[in-house]
Amino acid sequence: MEYIAPKVIPPLDESFRPAILANQNFRQRVEPFGFRAVIGLERGDGEVSRFETVVYPEGHPDFESNYPYIERIVKFLLWQRGGHTLYIGAPKQVGEHIRSVYAASGGRKFDFNFMGTQVYEKEFSVVICTADEVPDSHETGKQLGRNLGGCRIGFDLGASDRKVSAVVDGNPIYSEEVVWEPRKNMDPEYHYREVMTALRTAASKMPRLDAIGGSSAGIYVDNRPMVASLFRGIPQEKFGSIKDMFLRIRQEMGVPLEVINDGDVTALAGSMSIEDNGVLGIALGSSEAAGYVNREGRIMGWLNELAFAPIDYSTTAAVDEWSGDKGVGAPYFSQQCVFRLAPKAGIQIPADVTDAEKLKCVQSRVEAGDEGALQIWQSMGIYLGYGIAHYADFYDIKHVLILGRCTSGRGGDLLIEGASRVFEAEFPELSEKIELHLPDEKIRRVGQSVAAASLPVVN
Questions:
Q1: pTM of the prediction?
Q2: For a disulfide at 87, which of 40, 53, 285, 287, Cβ 3.0-4.6 Å?
Q3: List of domains in the chain
Q4: What is the pLDDT along the chain (459 residues), one digit of tens a residue?
C-alpha cells in the first residue's frame, strides 16, 4: 500500500501521510479489477453496520497490499461504530489476516479485549465470509434530545469538574461547576454521592423535577458506563456498581434519565444551535472527543471514539500511549499534539505544572505571535483538514463543529484556516459540502447543559 505525501505539509511534521490520500490512491488502483469487499460490525440489540469497498482479487501481484488497507478500515470502523462481531466479506486470506491481528495475542489485542469483554461483555469474534453473506445493515438510532418543555436537569461530568444546570422550558435558571477528582477515587460511592449532590442542588432550584439528562466522557450503552476515564480508579471487582449507578439514580429520583457520551451531546448542542443536522462535533481537549447527529437528527449509538481511529499512515506516525497504535486521532487532535510538537517548535514546556497550565503556557505564545507556537496550531489545522476529509468517508457530514481547550483564542482561527487550506488544495468539493464552525454566542447559549437536559422524553 502506497502512502502519499500531502500537497499541504504540516510545518512541524514533514513525514505526515494522510489516511485519506492512501485510501483514495488504493481504491483508484484497485477499481479496474473491481473485487467487492464488505465489512460488517454487529453490536448490541442486533444492530449491524456495513462498509463496502474494493480489494485486489486473489492471484493479483499486489494482493497483499489488501491487508494494511482493510486492517486500517477495520480499525476505524471499530472505534467509529463499535462492535463485538466483525464480518469480513472478502477473499479468505484477507479475513484470516484480520482474524490473526484482532486476536487475544495479535497486534490489535487492545482492541480485541476492549471491544469484547469491556464494552459489549462478550468475546470479540471475526467471521470470515463472502461479501453477500455479511448481514444487512440494521441501524435505527435514537431521536434523543430537543425536548425542552418542563423542569429538567442537565449535567456534564468532566475530569476536573462536574457541571449541573436547572433548566425550565429550555432556559437555564441555575448553573454551578464544582471541582472534583473522579480519577483518583476508588470508591464507587464517592461518584454516586457527588452526582446525587449535584442533582439535588439543581432540583432544589425548581418547583418540580420532570427529567434528568447528562453527558460524560466514555462509552455508554443503555445508560451504563462500560468504559470511562473518569472511573479508571475503580477496581474491576467494583466496577459493576459504576455500571449500574445511573440506573440506581434514575430509580431513586423517580424521573426519566438519559446519559450519553459527551461528544454526542456536543454534536446535539451544535445541531440545535445551527438548526440543521448532519453535524460532526470534534472536541480538542485532553484527548479527542467526537459525536455525531445524522441527517435525520438521530444519535446513532455509535462509539465515535475517534481518538483511537487512524488518520496518519506514516511509518513514523505518533504512537498512542494507551492503545499502542500509530497515527490515531488523540496525538493529533488534542493537547497531546501541542506537547508532542512543542520540542520541534523550539518550545520548552515547564515540567512541574498541570497539563492545563502547560497548554495555557503554549497558547500564551500563540497570542504573542511566537512563530514556533503558531506552527503548532498551523500543523494541527492541516491535520484537521485531512482528518475531516477522511471522516467524510465514514460520516455523512454537512457541518463540523470544532471546540475544546485547543480552540481557545487565536488557535481556533488557525485550525479553521489550516483545514480550509487543505480543502482548497486537495478536496475542493468538500468546501462546498461541509461548513466548519467554531462555537459562537448562539452555540454557547444552547450549550451542553441545555442539550443534555433535553435528552429524556417525558410522557
A1: 0.91
A2: 40
A3: 33-133 (no CATH), 151-262 (3.30.420.40), 266-447 (3.30.420.40)
A4: 999 999 999 999 999 999 999 999 999 999 998 899 999 999 987 899 999 999 999 999 999 999 999 999 999 999 999 999 999 999 999 999 999 999 999 999 999 999 998 899 899 999 999 999 999 999 988 888 899 999 999 999 887 788 999 999 999 999 998 888 888 889 999 999 999 999 999 999 999 999 999 998 888 888 999 888 788 889 989 999 999 999 999 999 999 999 998 889 889 988 988 899 999 999 898 889 899 999 999 999 899 999 999 999 999 999 998 899 999 999 999 999 999 999 999 999 998 888 889 999 999 999 999 999 999 999 999 999 999 999 999 999 999 999 888 998 999 999 999 999 999 999 999 999 999 999 875 555 457 778 899 999 987
